[in-house]
Structure formats: structure tokens, C-alpha cells
Write a structure and sequence with these properties.
Elements (H helix, E strand, L loop, with lengths): L9 H9 L10 H10 L3 E5 L2 E4 H17 L7 E5 L4 H12 L3 E4 L6 H11 L3 E5 L8 H10 L5 E5 L8 E2 L21 E7 L7 E6 H14 L7 E4 L6 H5 L2 H7 L3 E4 L5 H11 L3 E4 L4 H8 L11 E5 L5 H11 L2 E7 L5 E3 L6 H6 L3 E2 L5 E5 L12 E6 L11 H7 L6 E9 L5 E6 L3 E4 L2 E4 H8 L5 E11 L3 E10 L7 H10 L10 E4 L13 H9 L2
Parallel strand pairs: 1-11, 3-4, 3-5, 5-6, 6-7, 10-11, 10-12, 12-13, 13-14, 24-25
Antiparallel strand pairs: 1-2, 8-9, 14-15, 15-16, 17-18, 18-19, 19-20, 21-22, 23-24
Helix pairs in contact: 2-3, 3-4, 7-9, 11-12
Length: 538
């Protein structure tokens, strides 16, 4: 796969191994090890389904055998778009076990994004779940599977209906152990994550067994996660945050228990906290106020909860200070990206650091630079763009060499596009973004992608999308639209048109404002600075 992704330079990889960051374990190894060492220990909870480490490892083997019999071959890509349920975890590790690459697609992605990911990755199969009404991905998945030349199989958790797909349960019936995968190197990709950004549809991020495994183990250590941990997965499992910070992978790597929540509501989550003795969970800032409000009136016992992680976008200082008193647990702020770098406030940090910063880098090998527009380092306390490289930060995207030239420096630093301030002690405070995107409740929305879709809406001649501060969402998206003709379409018309085009609901602008013309710079480009100011003024 060298033509599809860029590995770390050989001397750098050797250094990471010699310093003990990387090893030869594959990502599914903790399941094998857990089954052998503590097979009876509870590994995964999904409603009434409770799988021990031995049960989980056996299920992964059976599904891996079923996938291999289709056949899905080592090195092939399979798009995985499932809600938080046991089948997600089993399928993910089953694909890893046979050497295939899961493409982790968020359940909220619309058909247009899914189709683009299928074509970019060359996926040989799609795995989706039965849904209801507009939330049922089966019809769109069936169409994509029929039209995309690379796709050979559609697999459905639940009833395949008239899609022509294979029921996921049939994979369990293969019976035989999976064929031994060509183990290859742990420095080859284990899975493909998605990145939101400013270049349209999400980019594919190749994460290797070595770097992702290290990311998970180091995160578990920074978060106090061990064999007694019970991690509640509230956010979608496809999020890097939920997967490896320390998330599902980190918890299983240390012998803990993962509990899957079907939704992020505090009512559902608090019931699971009490029932399962949850010790740690993770939220995006937009969910925190509702959790704090519900905590004041819930009858559920939340005494087991030790740590609430908050990440995905910046948590305001005032809300941060309410977490400990309201929930009776420690707040841990997390700032990271699917491309790699994770920053954490530490559990023993002073309250002022925990409530006012987004933490510091996870690894002693993480290299960070805060630079001005000309790439020159700025002193502590001065805003600048964050650049980084390290043992779990990629060196390039999957099948995107032209983009790599823009997003990575010649010496391998990733240009995050985030504006940060670094304190004297090395903690980072996120103050904005260089990238042209809206960070809505932790979901990064590429402005250019939405603008392109808006131009396809009847009555729209020109459009520009910007973010505006929002006390609940962090940022809300505002579309400034120039009408084609007398009347400008309103927000509901725009919403209906974008959804019909297959755009994910969270990407639909929160506001649509009609303007006679878009402001331009001296070279004729849309000037978004005055638009952001207008959006912020309400």
C-alpha cells in the first residue's frame, strides 16, 4: 500500500521503537491476550448483551471467518457505518483480524458523503444497520453498492429488506476459525479514520497498528484507565475520541469494560452509570449543560463516576468549573484530532489549569510548534497556528498526495489549522482556527462543501458559510446567501433541499441570511471576515 499512504521515515520509526512507543502488536491483540489472561472478565456491554473477553474474542473470530468467506481479503477496505452497538466493535476487530481496513464512517453522514468515501477508499463492502424512516441508511447504501464499481457486498445489521444485502448474523454462521492474516508489519495501516476539514468531503486518515495502539495505551495511562475501569461510550464509536482517547481501544487494551450507550442523553447515560458502575465517559461541550442540569434532579446514583472527559471543541471556563460540583467527578479536558496529536489536562493538575486550558501533549515524543503566518515561532502567550509531529501523528492522508503538500511541512509537521496559545508551562488554550470550517458541537463542517451544495439550491446565486459563537453548540453555522431572482430561499427551504441532496443534517446551516452581495477582497475572493463579524453580532 505504499502508493496510498506515507509511512514515517525509517529512522524516525526506528527511534519510536527504540524508545518503547511502538511494538509489533496488532490492534486486535488485546482481545486475544484478554481471552487468555482473564477470559471471564466483562469486556463489552450493549443493553442486555454482556460479552466476556473470551466471548468477544470468539465472536470476532467467527465474524472474521464469515467476512473472509465472502471473500473480504487482506488489504481491502470495508466501510463501517453503524450506531453504538456490539456489532460495531465485533466487526471492527474482525476486519482488523483478517487484515482488512475498516473505514470508520459516522452514522450521521449523508449518502453524498458515504458515496464519496466509498469511491475514495475503493471499499469492497459496506456495513450498515437497519433503521427507520429518513434515518434508515439501507436504501442509500443499496444504491451506492449497486453503482460503485468497487463494492461487492452490502452487509446489514438487522433485516436486509429488499436491498439484496447479507444479514450480519449470517457472518456468525461461518463456524470455522478465520484464516491467518498476513500479519505484515505493525507499521502498516490498521484502519482509516475520517477528518473534517476545509477541502470538502472528509479525508481518510491511515492509522497504523503501532501508532494507534500506542495512542490508546498512552491515553489510558493519562486518564487513569486500567483493569477496574468501566468506560461509557456516549459519543459515536466512529469518533477518534470514542475510539482511542482512551475510548474503546484503550479500555480493552488495559482489561477494562466498555459500555455502549445508544444515545447521549443524560437520562439514558445516568441509568447506565448506575447500573454498570461507570467510572469514565466523554462528551462534547454541547452536551455538558444538559448533563449538568439533569444531574441536579436525577435519582440515579452517579457515585462510581470518576472522570468526565470533554473535548471536540473548547469548553468555556464557566461551564468547566461547574462539572466537578455538579457531577462529583474530575473534569478532564481533551484537545486532539483524528490525524494524531492528543492533549489532556492531567488528573492531578490544579483546578485552574483543568478549567482554563485544553491540556498538554500526551507523549514525550510529541513535537509541537506555535507559529505565525510566516511560519515563525511565537512566544508563550501569543496566538499562533499549531503544528505537530510525533509517534501517532500521520505523515500524510490516504490517496491525497496533492493535499499533503498543503497540510504538511517538508519536515513532516502537520498543520492543524488550530489557533492556540501556549502557556509558560506548556499547556495549550484553543482560541480559534485558521481553517475555513465551522466546529459545531464537535462536528467539523467544511464551509466549502456546504457552499457547493447551496449553489445547487434553486434560487441561490452565491453563498458563503461562516461560524458564529453559540453558548450551546460552541459554534453555529450561518449561511449568507445571494438570491437568484426576487425571492431568497429561507432556512427550511434550504434544509429540505440539502437533505434531498444527501447532505448530513448537522451540516445544514443553523441560520440563512439573505444579502444583496458577498463582500470581496482586492483579488476578488469572498471576504469572510466581515461576514463573521455580522454573524457574531446576531
Amino acid at each position: 500500500m505504499p502508493q496510498d499512504w506515507l509511512p514515517w521515515p525509517a529512522d524516525t520509526a526506528r527511534e519510536y521503537r527504540e524508545r518503547g512507543f511502538w511494538d509489533d502488536r496488532r490492534l486486535d491483540a488485546p482481545l486475544r491476550e484478554g481471552a487468555a489472561r482473564h477470559g471471564d472478565r466483562l469486556a463489552l456491554v450493549d443493553g442486555a448483551d454482556r460479552l466476556s473477553y473470551a466471548d468477544l474474542d470468539t465472536c470476532v473470530d467467527r465474524v472474521a471467518a464469515g467476512l473472509a468467506a465472502l471473500p473480504v481479503r487482506a488489504g481491502e477496505r470495508v466501510l463501517l457505518q453503524l450506531p453504538n452497538r456490539a456489532e460495531y466493535v465485533v466487526t471492527l476487530f474482525a476486519l482488523v483480524r483478517i487484515g482488512a481496513l475498516p473505514v470508520l464512517a459516522l452514522p450521521s453522514l449523508g449518502p453524498a458523503e458515504v458515496e464519496s468515501l466509498v469511491r475514495t477508499s475503493g471499499a469492497c463492502a459496506l456495513v450498515v444497520a437497519q433503521g427507520r424512516g429518513r434515518a434508515d441508511p439501507r436504501p442509500a447504501a443499496a444504491r451506492i453498492a449497486a453503482e460503485a464499481p468497487s463494492v461487492r457486498r452490502l452487509i446489514v445489521v438487522g433485516d436486509p429488506g429488499d436491498t439484496g444485502g447479507l444479514a450480519w448474523d449470517a457472518l456468525l454462521e461461518a463456524g470455522a476459525a478465520p484464516p491467518a492474516a498476513d500479519a505484515g508489519s505493525a507499521e502498516e495501516p490498521a484502519l482509516l479514520l475520517l477528518s473534517g476539514g476545509t477541502t470538502g468531503t472528509p479525508k481518510l486518515i491511515p492509522r497504523t497498528h503501532a501508532d494507534y495502539g500506542y495512542n490508546a495505551r498512552a491515553s489510558a495511562a493519562a486518564c487513569g484507565v486500567g483493569a477496574d475501569a468501566v468506560y461509557l461510550a456516549v459519543l459515536p464509536a466512529a469518533h477518534n475520541f470514542t475510539m482511542v482517547s482512551p475510548g474503546i481501544v484503550g479500555t480493552l487494551a488495559t482489561g477494562g469494560t466498555v459500555v455502549l450507550s445508544p444515545d447521549p442523553s443524560p437520562t439514558t447515560a445516568f441509568g447506565l452509570v448506575e447500573r454498570e458502575g461507570v467510572t469514565i465517559t466523554a462528551l462534547v461541550p454541547a452536551l455538558v449543560p444538559a448533563w449538568l442540569e439533569e444531574a441536579g434532579r436525577t435519582a440515579h446514583d452517579l457515585g462510581s463516576l470518576r472522570v468526565l472527559q470533554v473535548g471536540g471543541s473548547r469548553l468555556d471556563d464557566a461551564t468547566a468549573r461547574r462539572v466537578g460540583p455538579a457531577l462529583g467527578c474530575r473534569l478532564q479536558q481533551v484537545f486532539g484530532m483524528a490525524e494524531g496529536l492528543n492533549n489532556y489536562t492531567r488528573l492531578d493538575d490544579p483546578d485552574d489549569v483543568v478549567c482554563t486550558t485544553q491540556g498538554r501533549p500526551l507523549s514525550p515524543a510529541d513535537e509541537v510548534a506555535v507559529v505565525d503566518e510566516d511560519g515563525r515561532p511565537v512566544p508563550p502567550g501569543t496566538p499562533g497556528e499549531l503544528l505537530t509531529r510525533g509517534p501517532y501523528t500521520i505523515r500524510g492522508y490516504y490517496r491525497a498526495r496533492e493535499l499533503d503538500a498543503l497540510r504538511f511541512t517538508p519536515d513532516g509537521f502537520y498543520r492543524t489549522g488550530d489557533l492556540v496559545v501556549r502557556t509558560e508551562r506548556g499547556d495549550l488554550v484553543v482560541v480559534g482556527r485558521v481553517k475555513d470550517q465551522v466546529n459545531r458541537a464537535g462536528e467539523k463542517i467544511a464551509a466549502v462543501e456546504v457552499e457547493e451544495h447551496l449553489l445547487g439550491v434553486p434560487g441561490v446565486a452565491a453563498a458563503a458559510v461562516v461560524g458564529a459563537p453559540d453558548p450551546v453548540l460552541g459554534e453555529r453555522s450561518v449561511a449568507f446567501v445571494v438570491a437568484r431572482g426576487a425571492a431568497c430561499p429561507g432556512r427550511e427551504e434550504v434544509r429540505a433541499a440539502l437533505l434531498a441532496r444527501g447532505v448530513a443534517p448537522f451540516k445544514v446551516p443553523d441560520e440563512v441570511r439573505a444579502v444583496p452581495a458577498l463582500p470581496l477582497t482586492g483579488v476578488g475572493k469572498v471576504d469572510k471576515r466581515p461576514l463573521r463579524e455580522r454573524a457574531a453580532e446576531g
